[in-house]
Specification:
alpha/beta; about 325 residues; single chain; ten-stranded mixed beta sheet
Length: about 325
């Protein structure tokens, strides 16, 4: 078996059928579909069982609710495929998705990860692709450079990536259930740290991401202490990038993201009057970044904003 597709599911009954069907409609057939029902209280579990009764490639796991990352990890433990692919239960695969990912992995020697593009869907209408379709091979360092750069925000999603199961198992990689919102990016960075080979990247869209209709955790403009873990995730990423031989460019951008996360979270929790959260941010941040580095960064940032406003440089 080539591919294990892992789908965490929690109360997405009305959206679940189209996603499962989009997988079953793929021309590429050498896969298993692992549906992890994460304690759903609607009819999601029954829908999973219904599909499993009709197709032997479908494996259903019913478990107590523990969150999307725990559900993905449960799928990893059960997977039998050579490659692992993670999808959400409220989106859809585009035709040819599995073939594109598999070809990217196998049509080039020494590839450890196959990465493709996706499109946003608003009320059933898909946006145009982010970029013109192109394909190339990256070293792990080059892909990390792309992942860290804000220009390429479409990288880092688990449902655009086909991973080697051996890399995940040999390095005991799992999704961090204590990190919210950027847990996907933390996992991909951990994978790039562990892999030794090349990355295949195509901008060919393979996935339709449905905006605003899912039930997955999202942090909005409201008080939520869990948003502290976004900063924790950026700290994990910075630590991983600087300690695994990646370029100065990747390290700079990882630090940049961590500092911006610190600034935003500190301002937010100051506004809510949460002194405990602010103290936590200060203690953790300045244990990683010396005060003089932070001051230099803020000076540089202010200077850049000034020059952009004068139209001397582009943002």
């Amino acid at each position: 078996m080539k591919i294990s597709i892992i789908m965490p599911i929690y109360n997405t009954g009305r959206l679940l059928r189209p996603q499962i069907q989009s997988i079953l409609d793929q021309e590429y057939r050498d896969y298993e579909l692992i549906l992890v029902d994460d304690g759903s209280t609607d009819d999601s579990g029954a829908i999973c069982d219904e599909f499993a009764d009709k197709d032997k490639r479908i494996v259903v796991i019913h478990k107590k609710n523990g969150g999307v990352d725990e559900a993905r990890n449960t799928g990893i433990d059960a997977a039998r495929g050579q490659y692992l692919y993670f999808v959400d239960s409220d989106d859809e695969l585009l035709p040819g998705a599995l073939q594109t990912l598999k070809d990217g992995m196998e049509n080039h020697e020494g590839v450890d990860i196959s990465v493709a593009g996706y499109v946003y869907s608003h009320e059933g209408k898909a946006d145009p692709p982010f970029l013109p379709v192109s394909s190339r091979l990256f070293s792990r360092n080059q892909l990390m450079d792309e992942l860290m750069c804000p220009k390429y925000q479409n990288l880092g999603m688990p449902w655009t990536n086909l991973y080697k199961a051996s890399v995940i198992r040999d390095n005991n990689l799992r999704f961090n259930k204590n990190i919210h919102t950027i847990d996907d990016r933390v996992f991909m960075v951990s994978y790039l740290c562990a892999m030794k080979g090349l990355a295949f990247h195509t901008t060919q869209p393979i996935y339709k991401y449905n905006l605003g209709i899912g039930v997955s955790f999202q942090i909005k403009n409201k008080y939520d202490k869990r948003s502290l873990t976004i900063f924790d995730g950026q700290c994990l990423i910075f630590d991983a990038v600087r300690n695994h031989g990646f370029s100065a460019k990747s390290i700079w951008w990882a630090r940049h993201r961590m500092i911006n996360s610190y600034d935003k979270k500190r301002e937010s929790f100051l506004g809510y009057g949460d002194k405990e959260a602010v103290q936590y941010l200060d203690d953790k941040f300045f244990s990683i970044v010396p005060n003089y580095i932070y001051r230099l960064f803020k000076i540089r940032q202010s200077a850049k904003t000034f020059l952009v406003n004068l139209r001397i440089i582009k943002e």
